[in-house]
Write the structure tokens for this entry.
Amino acid sequence: MLSPELLHALHNLPLAAKRAAEGFLHGAHLSRRKGAGMEFSQYRPYQPGDDLRRLDWRLAARSDRYYLRESDVDTSLTVHLVLDATASMNHPDDNGLTKLDYARLLLGALAYLAQQQGDAVGLTILHPAGLRHLPPRADARQLPRLYHALETAEAAGTFPTQETLAPLTARRQRALVVCATDMYEQDAEMERLLTRLRAASGEVLLLHLMAGNELNFSFRGAVTFEDLETGQRLQLNADQQRATWQPQLQQWLRATAQQARRHGFDYHQLSTAEPLTQAIREFLRRRDAMG
């Protein structure tokens, strides 16, 4: 699985998304083991370039092994991708990637997987200036539209108003909602939106993005921290604050995870310093559970 910084260095989101998705599937089956009761005469191992619509997704979810079906009826779903494009997503990790950069790669890879499976895929970019919304479609031109919207997305400002968000939950449609966000909120606004989306669609996969330097507090010496959404600044000595930072961060992460699961979200914390492996695996499992 290529690292996120190598994928980003391609400067080509369609290629990076494809490499990430197919690299995960290829790497996942390298150490495959035949299980009892499987009719392997009906399957063959996945190879990069194969049509992903022929993958046995149920088998993949159970075993993390990837095989193509010889004959089976595909099921399709609606996948609604949601990107948090508020200013805090501009936070850079030590590898040079911002949370927004990582989210672009991640959602691009998930869009590729869903489109190859025949799913209708849509995208909403949350931005204070207004929503950028591409309704779910399954046609061949949808993937380039999604890539262009992700590539041109810029993080700025604070969370959209409730009036701006209202059209997202006005229509009830069964879908898998996948949200990439850092969960930095002023007043639980992301939590309220996802709660409404879950009521309207049925399933929410919440991918909580944290930079590696936030998780490890790898800062040194005198540092000026700036709230990217409010502009508020705080000067401190990172070496002196490290012991205090870590337990407070872990307390917040635990509370965030507990609250998300209490609302019925499928919650996963991700580090922008790590490959996209975990998020892709959880997406495939959740997609299969709805199939």
Notes: The first strand starts at residue 43 and ends at 45. Residues 4-69 form one domain. The beta strands are 43-45, 67-69, 78-84, 120-126, 132-137, 175-181, 202-210, 222-226, 233-237, 266-271. The chain is about 40% helix and 20% strand.
